[in-house]
Amino acid sequence: MTHIEKKTHSAIGIEVIGMTMRFGSFTALNQVSLKIPPGHFHALLGENGAGKSTLVKCMMGFYQATEGEIIVNGRQAEILAPQDAHALGLGMVYQHFTLAPSLTAAENLLVSRRDASTVIHWSQEKQKLTDFLGTMPFTVPLERKVYALSAGEKQKLEILKQLYLGCHFLILDEPTSVLTLSEADEVLGLIRQLCQAGQITALMISHKFREVTTYADEVTILRKGERVGQGQTSQLSVAEMATMMVGKPVTQNIYERQPHTPVPVLSLENICCEDRSGLKSIEIDSLNVCAGEIVGVAGVSGNGQVELMEVLTGQRSLQAGGIYVQGEPFRATREEAFKHNVRFLPEEPLHNACVSGMSVKENIALRDFDRDPQQKRLFWLKKRLMRSRSAQLVTDFNVKTTSLDTPIESLSGGNIQRAVLARELTGKVDLLIISNPCFGLDFSAVADIRDRIMQARNAGAAVLLISEDLDEIMELSDRVLVMSEGQITYESPIEQTTLEQIGQHMAGHRTTAWIN
Amino acid sequence: MTTDIGLWGVPLAIIGGAIRVSTPFLFVSLGECLTERSGRINLGLEGTLVFGAMSGYATAYLTGSPWLGVLAAAICGFGFGLVHGWICALPRVNDIAVGIALMLFGMGLAFFFGKPFIQPVAPDLPTINLGAWSDIPQIQAALKINVLFIIGIVLAVTMAWMFRNTQLGLTIRVVGDSDAAARAMGLKTNRIRFLSTACGGALAGIGGAYLSLYYPGSWNEGLSSGQGLMAVALVIFARWNPLNCFWAALLFGGAGALGPALQSIGITQGYYLFYAAPYVLTLALLIATSSPSKALTGAPGALSITR
Question: How many CB atoms lie within 10 A of CB A197?
């Protein structure tokens, strides 16, 4: 364990040769090789289960590869544990934040350095941190507690942390999955800048073609543990990459849209409520959603979308104004939801729409377990009916589960969302309220879920889609709204707007100069 | 010789009482604060406190040194903390259930071993007379301060400083705040929680020794009146900050001294009601500081009640 190599201040080049990883009889990774020269930004594309995580975990020493070797800066390296990887200057930024929320940014940076002195001399350390940040192209507020930072700032802090620890090869595991479009652009732009300056080399796991084509130099595509493609991003089209990733040609689904009737189903009038911090308020003068129409609400995260969803689901009380569904006041009680056929698809379905320890069958029955098919109240549960109904829905919605009695938490994200969709989209749906339905899901699940939403629309449901994924909004909506600082600042039919116009309104008062 | 100072006797008696009664609250709440900051709740501190009181008293009686009694109480408390920490490190164990079990276990064990020590008299802990400048006996009585109270203050300040200014303090906070962050740093969460719980237990044991060796100053089975449990509420009220723990302990101590203070000037009506003041205060503070819409600010994120 020599620490001589660690103290380089420039990017590290890495080569992986013939990496194979077997878990018992299952081969998660088969003879994968890739070469990343210093200062390059390399992307690793693949669907869930393609072996991307296994590959980087082998590189970071979490797993011991069955075969294959890693060459760091031209020398063969033996990485037996994550500590060895760190000593070589390899660092990883995880998909979910690994910062302690109630510590300040400075405290988080300092505590991550395991060799720091027992007693911390804050004035000296702050000076050092400020000096360090001075050499970086971006900064974060050091004195602020991490829970008060935006998702983008947290991700920047994660990257700074790795650089602060002396890592010059960064592995980023879907670094933008919790970021909004503009935050993602900023963070990836900065990583690219650091790469070009020769400070780091980056390997990014991603699902998103847009990010790969815009920011990465080269790309490696994995499918079922095998390398199925590799090359310069400038010489590969999105269609080519998608084909390699999924194995069959993916045609961009152009939905058939039924014309809608201009009958408002959901209307919000002059509503006002507190935001999460209790310091600002959410004010929406008027919002209408008509039958057979999808209204997309775009916005940078933290501009009131969460609060709007909470108001609509009855989790946040209103200070003023009213919500009306089909002309009647709506307080999101279960009775009212039944009466008006209102359905909800909250974000993070495992936490917000499921009881994680209960079985798939029970979760599918959650909405109407106490009603018979004629909507009469039941006293005793009809277990047999519950089973047959959920078995039918599991087949119809293509939920992949080992059995109906499996706890829903052991399903993959895509299948949990499918199960929730199965529950919410059966029967007559008049109003569907959705928040970030495809967060962190893989390619085929996303297509599936968007398809279902479109079907509900065409069957006459009014759909309110709150999403931070602009592509999703552009793909699905009939009408787009933009939320900024708790208000609706822009509204347009989808045919009459562009991504740029929406982006500008999302940015609000904020300057967008730093993107370049 | 007594000087009649009239109604002034009440606030004076409350201040004196606050100082006297608060010390066990202070030690137990500092112990609980340390444990909770590392991400565990130890409800067993009531049992630890009672066992500490018994073992401290017994050791002081047998050796003749109250300080050896304090040391013995701390060691016993450390042992109880180790047991709690060890059981909680096993998979699928709930720290609250373990805490309640250990509370009952500690009390039962203390009563069992403590039977022979109810009669004998053990030496008291020394005090410092800060009131010697005054010739009013009430002031002298109020300002008779036990050494453990001063150690407690020093400890609160040190702990607050440690959480902010040492690698160890930051590490404990990270472990208590986010499992994911701690694991990513390669910290051994279970070991840090194990040791924090053990040290927290030692502090609770010292709190118990104060009860039996200074105020009330004898060992019997009704010695503790729930200080160990109230300390948990106190830590929440103090927002997991050791310095706030000190002020909160004083407040609780003052509330506990309200009954005797009023009695001393001859108010005997509603006597039992005044004795209930600390419990009422616990309830009132928890209601007043709660919020239906916001999560507790400052709560360690990995605590089972906030998770």
Answer: 12
